[in-house]
Design a protein that fits this description.
alpha+beta; five-stranded antiparallel beta sheet; 27% helix
């Protein structure tokens, strides 16, 4: 790994911005001055101009479908002073889901959790739905020379302090609001995983995702939409058209990468809106009105006439999908259910 030298004579790390802690062999960020392969925070680094490593992003099934189509673009980094930074993607070198503070879908939203989620989402939390983000593991292939990719502990050392890093790691395995006594001392006695965490300051394109695995009760297996994704998307309010209708639609598009195929689904955001169908994946995101087949969102594709004909041909099924999506909406927002 090539390293530059800073004006003070120390060897500056090319991997972590601002790191100039190289001494004899290794710097505080864990990189090797000699250029040999170094295993840092569980991630494999290799020599050469195209140094890459595999990191993981754990998420929910319904969210994974969007990520496979659009990439990793959303994330939130809470700061010690109570502020936060958006557009920061969290990754880990740990292939296991435990110990990272991932929601399992069983959490009860307290007032403080609602307030935090509102900051993360930049909008109020209107229901009690919590996604199970332990179900999908995405493998992401990144260059270890990418300046946007930084080990969390190194970032914390530079921008916050190590107590902040330890508290973050500890908060992933216990509720700190219920801890009595010295948190720092507790962190030293508790096994945590913050040293496996990485931050990516920017968007990661979907082509960098090289594997998607679904966690069963006993092991991970390759993610399959029909086996793992369809029912989970339905439960999240995204009602996908039938396999046969979907297969027909997929003949109209070329896959952009191996893990993404176009899906067509209805999702109800407001019960008074015009019924619509979304087509997402294979490089497009389009929304059409079901009745008229008018395009109401997205750039007009060259095959729009075929898509409109597909919508008209399957209008009855698409309308049924919309009705199912409305049922899920009222399940999430029972206060909005019309009084008969």
């Amino acid at each position: 790994m090539r390293l530059a030298t800073d004006p003070g004579g120390k060897v500056a790390c090319r991997h972590v911005p601002g790191c100039s802690q190289h001494r004899t062999e290794k710097c505080a960020c864990g990189h090797d001055r000699s250029g040999k392969t170094e295993r840092y925070n569980g991630a494999n680094h290799t020599n050469g101009a195209a140094d890459t490593m595999i990191l993981y992003h754990h998420t929910a099934v319904a969210l994974a479908e969007s990520i496979l189509a659009n990439g990793l673009t959303l994330g939130y980094l809470a700061r010690k002073d109570g502020s936060g930074q958006h557009n920061v993607v969290w990754l880990t070198s740990d292939p296991a889901h435990e110990g990272h503070g991932l929601p399992t879908g069983k959490e009860v939203l307290t007032a403080s959790k609602r307030e935090y989620m509102a900051r993360v989402q930049l909008k109020p939390v209107l229901n009690d739905v919590v996604y199970d983000k332990t179900r999908i593991r995405l493998s992401v292939d990144l260059s270890d020379r990418d300046p946007a990719l930084v080990p969390f502990v190194s970032w914390a050392r530079q921008h916050e302090d190590m107590q902040y890093a330890r508290r973050m790691g500890l908060s992933a395995v216990m509720d700190l609001s219920k801890v009595k006594g010295n948190v720092t001392s507790l962190a030293l006695r508790t096994r945590t995983k913050e040293k496996t965490w990485w931050l990516y300051f920017g968007a990661i394109g979907p082509q960098r995702i090289v594997a998607a695995d679904f966690r069963t009760t006993s092991a991970y297996q390759p993610y399959d939409f029909e086996a793992h994704g369809r029912s989970a998307m339905h439960d999240a309010g995204q009602v996908v058209v039938s396999p046969a209708t979907l297969a027909e639609l997929q003949t109209y598009f070329e896959p952009q990468h191996a893990l993404d195929r176009v899906k067509a689904f209805a999702i109800c955001v407001r019960p008074d809106e015009t019924p619509s169908i979304q087509i997402r994946g294979d490089g497009v995101h389009l929304i059409f009105r079901i009745g008229s087949a008018d395009l109401i969102y997205g750039t007009t594709p060259p095959n729009i006439d075929r898509l409109r004909a597909w919508i008209h041909r399957h209008a009855v099924e698409l309308t049924r999908c919309w009705g199912d999506a409305m049922e899920v909406y009222f399940r999430y927002y029972p206060q909005a259910t019309p009084v008969v």
